[in-house]
Predict the structure.
Amino acid sequence: MSELHSETTVEDLDYEEYQVPSEDAEMRCPICLEVRNGSAGDFDHNRRWIVLQCCEDAVCRQCLRQHLLTNGHACPLNPGHNLRDVDVIAGCSAPNDWVKLEQRRKFREVGGKGFCCTSDSCAGILPSPPPGVWQNEPFPAACPGCHLAHCGRCGSPWPASLMQRHVCEDLRHSAEQREVQARVAAEQVAAPLIDAITASITAETPFNWVAATVGMLGPEAARARLDGVGLNQQQTQLLLRGLPNLEDPAVVCPELRLLNMLQEHRAENRPEEQGEDAAWHRAIQFEYERVLLGRRRNTATMRELENLNAQRRDGQTPIKNCPRCRHPTDRVDGCNIMTCTICRAEWCFICAQEKS
């Protein structure tokens, strides 16, 4: 150690950097046990030697950096001593990398509970919510280091705009799975009824009845069923254009797809003016609720539809209370699935029940 020329960079530090006096001088790092000299290919910024004054031995910068990230500020050769100014040692030429590595070390210290701040210049850790709290709803949480807004449920960045809504990826995936399962189950239950009805459709079948029938199907299934019906191209395109867009994420209530279509039809065409078509219309509507929905609240649902149509005809805006927090909510148009602005609950405006 005596033949090495050392140079202290910061006063009262537990370490100091020094240069190898010649290219022929070789040293062995006590951590990685590699022997390196001062040649240009071997002596770079990350391989500079650092002498630790607590034990008067030298280690390479890269080994010391990895040791500090793994084991904290303890001296690698004398665990009873702590090193100061770790940022100066391990910062090197990429401070943001050091910040993230330091963040990982802190994350391991808390047992992997919580979330890492997404800012490149912050090593903060967001605590995880208590068990049983906010398990199914995202909520904003600020990083304790830089106060950047994150989702306290999944740890992803929180939208800066109030017009954007954050949805956790696992909740989005679960909702998509439930939508697919509900759609498959509804189609399986409705298949016998649809087969029986579409089998009797001919070119003379009332157009409104055909429209109500294909409303039970998706676009592809409806097109396949209508190919052999004998309708002209204009009628077929009109029917397909009136179907709900199943790819639209706003359509999340498959049980109400046909009811929405029938509701709009009833608002435009008074039943007393339709004659025989109105009878078919009501028969399909009640039969759909009985077979496809399979719920005991069918009568209440029909009453709700009648009340909503009456309120629209009278120029009134229907108002209902959120089933979770009872906050009053009005609906002018659009999908019947409402999102409460207070508790973020999603519920059906027709039956006033929260989505399961």
User: Anything to note?
Assistant: The mean pLDDT is 62.
